[in-house]
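The methods section describes the discrete structure representation at length, but only in general terms. What matters is that the chain and its backbone geometry are given together, residue for residue. Nothing conveys this as quickly as seeing an actual entry. For illustration, here is how one protein appears when written out as sequence plus structure tokens:
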Amino acid sequence: MKFNGMKMHRYDLIAVIGPTASGKTEFAARLAQNLDGEVISADSRQVYRNMNIGTGKDYSDYLVNGTAVPVHLIDIAEPGYKYSIFEYQRDFFQAYRDVASRNKMPVLCGGSGMYIEAVTHCYRLDEVPVNEKLRLELQGKSLNDLKEILLQLKTLHNQTDTDTVEHALRAIEIEYFYHDHPGERDLPNLSILYLGILYDRDTERKRITERLHKRLQQGMVEEVRSLLASGISADSLSYYGLEYRYITRYLTGKMEYETMVSLLNTAIHQFAKRQRTWFRRMERRGTQIHWISGELPLDEKIESALALLNS
């Protein structure tokens, strides 16, 4: 593939990954600018409009040397809507084809492991209809019963498949659909360069805590209050991630402000740990991730990335 007169690259896509607060967005935008490319977000929450501070939409990161780097798949859904991974995979490949057709380098950027693998590993995702007959047959079965049925149908990678009876029923329903509809999908087989940004643990913890306090100062509580005032229920807001869950609990009187901040900070640290675990699992399963130290100056990170791209 050739991009704007540059040398021929063997990669169709660059995937920039890393835990939260690792500076992925700034790095991805700068890299895309160097390659005359465009960023495609792989963030499961930044798809929502008016959810900016809590989801970490740092729009200024996309402004490089006075030029706005194009970014796709942020601000495409309304708050209150539950955007699915199926929709993300569909929208990603639409954006990818658009970027590639204009001879630009697509740069995928995000920390949502399931979203990343859904497109880089071409998971089979279909709009699976409700199977009323199957649901009737499974009615009354316990969560353990449903888990045993699901284990006979697939290897469990996503633990949320069995965290509730509703999720387990849906997972079984999907597997039955795949069995009855074994058709092929028209998804491209991409050659991907994975670049990971990673800080040492102490620095990562410091960056997470500092970023949380910065976002609170920027008005994250007011953002959540505005969303509640717009008619989105407290239960619905909890769906959109840690910041919205904990701040909603504070705003609805379920915890004090200081308690909320402390618990939210701890939860984000735990989330970063799960992200690192996901990336290690990707490596164990054969994905080669080229890790770049977060401590390096941005220019040196870019030089390292370009050297890998052109090797």
